[in-house]
Design brief:
- The protein has 238 residues and is α/β, with parallel strands linked by helices.
- The protein has eight helices and twelve strands.
Amino acid sequence: MSKKILVVDDEISILTLLQYNLEQAGYSVITAMDGEEGKTLAEQESPDLIVLDLMLPKLDGIEVCKQLRQQKIMVPILMLTAKDDEFDKVLGLELGADDYMTKPFSPREVVARVKAILRRSQIQAESGDTELEQDETLRFGELKVYPERYEAYFEDNQLELTPKEFELLLYLAKHKGRVLTRDQLLSAVWKYDFAGDTRIVDVHISHLREKIEADTKKPVYIKTIRGLGYKLEEPKTE
């Protein structure tokens, strides 16, 4: 059964182009031309991935993304923006988008990005990664990560994580105590060249800290190693 992609863009030329190329790649595609319709289709159609334009009538892409995440709809979201604007990109990622692309782009590039995101999501869902085949639980203080179930808990409460947040947490957990550079994390978690935009790593680290740290300014789980990167470690007991 083909994967279902929801494309939301108010430019009919882009919508048509993306629909054609994604269908040629074997995907089932549904479309919307404004944020309200896009949000409704996301709720009703349960797509496997959403390609979401930032600037939309009725409800912009940032708000659509925010509302879906608030409803615990964790479908991967690839955000499109016509602005080469760092604030828009970072804000979109902070609100739960998994990836972004800046217009203009080639349809082939979008299809490649969609394939990469879906492939990683499928691997995680099926626990197909050989590193994750064992029924293992990774524990660090009050934090528990279940690779085979694609779940994480903090203080026995399940964490609501986007796919990329989970992948980042899992990678840190599987390399406990090791200092990982931003470039290492970018390569390992995002799986392709992100033009060295390590700010994406910082945004996701910040998001994880908000969910597992009592004081994000004094983290005890995910430590910043100045000038190097990050590491996950056991919290020290008094």
